[in-house]
Write a structure and sequence with these properties.
This is Zinc-binding dehydrogenase. This protein is α/β, with parallel strands linked by helices and 333 residues long. The chain folds into 2 domains: 164 residues, Medium-chain alcohol dehydrogenases, catalytic domain (Quinone Oxidoreductase, Chain A, domain 1, Alpha-Beta Complex); 142 residues, Rossmann fold. Helix content is 25%, strand content 28%. The chain contains 10 helices and 15 strands. α6 links the parallel β11 and β12.
């Protein structure tokens, strides 16, 4: 048996680090001692605030996230650590490797080697905790399928939004605009490759783009869909990457949305677009995400690191919006 400590979301705006006992690794499994784990400011704040839809599956594609959304809930999916022990049938070369795993926040965990990704040379544990956000950005771009010369607008310059801007900036678009209420994030968006970054108040004015080819809605606010629909042009696409949870807003679908044949498309990283599954799988997509991570200016994204025992402070700081940079991590040593 192995002693460990795991983070639980226990009630709205309450978290708790609890002692747990893990089974020894079975055949094909290893023990990983966590060095750092990344906090997803979008989905984890929904869970923290109690805004998740009850009885919805957490993620049916990830073994460590089996179950449904209900308190108490262990959550998180960006753990990086070192393999310290191996079960039967595991090659000893795994011992001592630094690996990434889609595991909830905990100081150690047991996992199958099939679910672990060894870090590439030159990638630090802190940088590796960004992999889920970069993979989400990669999936958003695959789903949106931007074309040469198109004009694209991204609503929301949070962590996923900025990663998406980074990937999109490598395409031969005619223009890439970001709409973001926070001035510091607008400046970051420009540094990550946006041609311009504007405040939401400018939408609908001469200062904002209109009749664009595609819009990404990544703000996390359902009311933003109205601005997204207003911004896209005839036969345009709105790709919705936000997870709204239980948040609701009235959306105007009675005007331009209907007459201008606008498409609303959901993008979710748990699965691959059916049109791409003949050539793409999760392994290929993750490899591409790793490539993009290696070209990402991670120093501009990575900010405060909280000790695992200070988890409550970390979520309060994120919820208050007082973090200086978008990416926040836990440290365990």
């Amino acid at each position: 048996m192995i002693d460990a400590r795991r983070l639980y979301f226990t009630d709205p705006c309450e978290v708790e680090v609890r002692s747990v006992t893990l089974d020894a690794p079975e055949e094909g499994e290893v023990v990983v001692e966590t060095a750092e784990s990344g906090i997803s400011p979008g989905s984890e704040l929904l869970v923290y605030r109690g805004e998740f839809p009850e009885e919805t599956a957490v993620d049916e594609t990830i073994e460590a996230l089996a179950g449904t959304f209900e308190y108490p809930l262990p959550y998180g999916y960006a753990a990086v650590g070192t393999v310290t022990d191996c079960g039967a049938g595991v090659d000893e070369s795994w011992r001592g490797r630094t690996v990434f795993a889609f595991e909830p926040h905990a100081d150690r965990f047991v996992a199958s080697t099939d679910t672990l990704v060894p870090l590439r040379e030159g990638i630090t544990p802190t940088e590796a905790t960004l992999l889920p956000s970069v993979e989400t950005a990669t999936n958003l771009v695959l789903d949106g399928n931007p074309r040469v010369g198109e004009e694209v607008v991204v609503f929301g310059a949070g962590l996923v939004g900025l990663c998406t801007v980074h990937v999109l900036s490598q395409f031969p678009l005619s223009n890439l605009t970001v709409v973001e209420p926070v001035a510091t994030r607008r400046r970051l968006a420009a540094q990550f490759g946006a041609d311009r970054a504007i405040a939401p108040a400018a939408v609908g004015s001469d200062a904002a783009p209109s009749a664009v080819d595609m819009v990404y809605e990544l703000s996390g606010q359902p009311a933003t869909l109205d601005d997204a629909i207003e911004t896209v042009g005839y036969d345009g696409r709105v790709v919705v990457g936000s997870w709204y949870g239980k948040k609701r807003a009235p959306i105007n679908l009675g005007g331009s949305f209907h007459r201008e044949r606008i498409s609303l498309e959901s993008s979710q990283v748990s699965t691959i677009d059916p049109d791409l599954r003949g050539r793409w799988d999760r392994e290929r997509r993750f490899d591409v995400a790793f490539d993009h991570l290696q070209t990402l200016d991670t120093e501009r994204l990575c900010g405060e690191a909280f000790a695992f025992d200070a988890a409550a402070d970390a979520y309060r700081t994120l919820a208050d919006g007082t973090v200086k940079r978008p990416h926040v991590t836990f440290t365990y040593r």
